[in-house]
Amino acid sequence: MKTKVLIVDDSALIRAVMSEIVNSQPDLEVVGVAPDPLVARDLIKRTNPDVLTLDVEMPKMDGLDFLEKLMRLRPMPVLMVSSLTERGSEITMRALELGAVDFVTKPKISIQSGMREYTDIICDKIRAAARARIKPRTLHPNAPAPVLPALKSPLTSSEKLIIIGASTGGTEAIREFLMQMPSDCPGILITQHMPEGFTTSFAKRLDTLCKISVCEAAGNERVLPGHAYIAPGHSHLMLVRSGANYMTRIEQSPPVNRHRPSVDVLFRSAAQAAGKNAVGVILTGMGKDGAAGMLEMKQAGAYNFAQDEASCVVFGMPREAIAVGATHEVGALAALPGMVLGHLAAQGGRALRV
């Protein structure tokens, strides 16, 4: 059975190109196109699509307003496809917070040489969206923060590191994880599959929400407690050791597992540079990026956690890491911060120096 796709975009040219891309796949089918959310609303009722692709900037109703109403009244997989997400990455972050599964930028019609790669990317994201677990958003901004284990020794913060990898659904999973981190937590390195231009806004958004400091990694930074460093969308992020300090490194070497930044690259560098001082966390995402690197972390003495299937948007990357035996514990997203800090607290300050 084919995955049914409804395309919503105010540009007739983009609707035509997107339809051609989707209908070129044997397992995907466009069941309708709409120039605005008002037409889309009726088509949703008539065609019952599996996935909706949505432009943010449209006439008659703002795309974000439509997305908010849709996720409240009829939650369904939504993939943002918009030129506005390229220019206004902050709006993209808001769309993901409202419940969009993922996003891509609009195809550059004048650059045909890259269309094959673009076709693969968008069709893979549609397939992932179709499998995604969509839940109504229940935001409780005034809810009390959970009580998490206290770290027993400052050595735990300065010597231990938390290494995180994620893909589809990961922006919100990372936000939920980091918002529970105390200001004196170990330094955190993060690779989230995200295009260039969006990781800066992602980091800035997290920095305003979290107790810890969050930034886009620039390379050659000392990894400090209470700080999180996010891989820039154009480069791999790696951990290196320099004397007594951990440092960040970024490289524009070829993609790994079709990704740059790649989770495997970050995890492998953590295995080599930190060994038993690293704690690995693999979150929601499609594909298998991170599984092999996490296994290397485990073999080097790291302790690893994976997000469970029930709380993942897409249980691809965690499933692969679990399947190869790379993880020690599996838990729901809401429980993972406590599990990670509980493990670190149990370690105390013992055997943390390298």
UniProtKB/TrEMBL annotation:
Active site annotation, chain numbering: 167, 193, 289
Enzyme nomenclature, EC number: 3.1.1.61, 3.5.1.44
Top-rank EC class of the record's enzyme: hydrolase
Keyword Iron-sulfur: no
Residue ranges occupied by any Response regulatory domain in the UniProt entry: 4-121
Domain of life per record: Bacteria
Keywords: Chemotaxis, Cytoplasm, Hydrolase, Phosphoprotein
Modified residues (4-aspartylphosphate): 55
Function: Involved in chemotaxis. Part of a chemotaxis signal transduction system that modulates chemotaxis in response to various stimuli. Catalyzes the demethylation of specific methylglutamate residues introduced into the chemoreceptors (methyl-accepting chemotaxis proteins or MCP) by CheR. Also mediates the irreversible deamidation of specific glutamine residues to glutamic acid.
Name this polypeptide is given: Protein-glutamate methylesterase/protein-glutamine glutaminase
